[in-house]
Amino acid sequence: MNDRAIKKEIENAGNKEELRVIELRYLGRKQGRITLRLRKIKELPEGERKKEGAALNHLRGEIEEAIEKKRHALNQRSEIDFSGKHFDISLPPHHAKNGLPRSRGHLHPLTLMRREVETIFSSMGFAVVDGPLVETEYYNFDALNLPPNPPARDFWDTFWLQDPKRSGEKWSVPNEGRLKKALPTTHLLLRTHISPMQVRFMEKNNPPLRFISPGKVFRYEATDTSHDVEFMYVEGLMVDKNVSVAHMKYILFTFLQKLFSNKSMEMRLRPSYFPFVEPGFEVDMRLAESSKWLEILGAGMVHQQVFKNVGYIPKQWQGFAFGMGLDRLAMLKYKIPDIRLFHAHDIKFLEQF
């Protein structure tokens, strides 16, 4: 695979749509040429795996850097100057009478971020799964080691579709027969995190497993420059016999390094508390050009009670889970100052991407 030819192809891309096609051709998580070759490394003789892997990872890094550079150049192109021109604003933008270029849509910045996150994790062997936006109280709280009374449940302000304090209606729990004891009454709500999908996936799949699940979550809280009632999130889970904090640290460090295209990035773990992991950590990162540590995500080793709730034999399996806001990642990478811009329908803002 000729790296010069690939870079020339990237340089000749005339717009973002052409650049995206090239990116998918080589780095796509399903049929990308580099991705497919990385998946076949395990078929090579042991002596060749390390050499081939290093070469492919180096090539992938160069392609990612060239694509990012070209994307930045396309963003810098000046807008068409309409001063002094007269046109009928009631006609569509591409109408010939206006003399304007045909307007073409493009992907939202959060969609671009989601696809980039999926591509990176897919290259490390993670599947991508989806789950429901409307959850039961059981999956959102109880199955994740958050029983009804402890104050830990108050960590999330919640949009209830039924008031749990007033409604007398009961909802059945799909896996009730798999547990030895009766499960509590459960009500419907908009999910406050994507951790319920981890429980749902483990109920239907035996380990070893590794996957991420991106999507919307909802919190009943005040809106400001860094908080919103609806935002994009991604959570991940890896379960196997001997998974450790070291595996978690490597996976997360590799992901952040690739996402921000910064080989000098630093990452640190700080002990923290999350009811569904033990031990739990806050993960901070620091880019080479900055002296400031940024809290970027939460992670930890899956609590054995969660494994017990999904029917796994306690202490037979180990795993780690992590979660991060896609909005926050996009704000950091694209230098966006206000989270509300993602849903403000501002064309000038969206055309920057």
Task: Report on this structure.
It is a single chain. The protein is an alpha+beta fold and 353 residues long. The chain has two domains: 3-77; 111-343, Bira Bifunctional Protein, Domain 2 (BirA Bifunctional Protein, domain 2, 2-Layer Sandwich). 34% of the residues lie in helices and 18% in strands. The protein is built from eleven helices and nine strands. The chain has helices at residues 3-11, 16-27, 33-39, 46-75, 109-123, 137-140, 195-204, 245-259, 304-309, 326-334, 347-350, and strands at 127-128, 134-136, 188-190, 209-218, 230-240, 266-272, 277-286, 294-302, 318-325. The strands form two sheets. It has a seven-stranded mixed β-sheet, with helices on both faces. The chain has a two-stranded antiparallel sheet with strand order 2-3. β7 (277-286) and β8 (294-302) form a beta hairpin. α1 (3-11) runs parallel beside α4 (46-75), α2 runs antiparallel to α4 and α5 (109-123) crosses α10 (326-334). The radius of gyration is 23 Å and the shape is globular. Mean pLDDT is 83; it is low at 166-185.
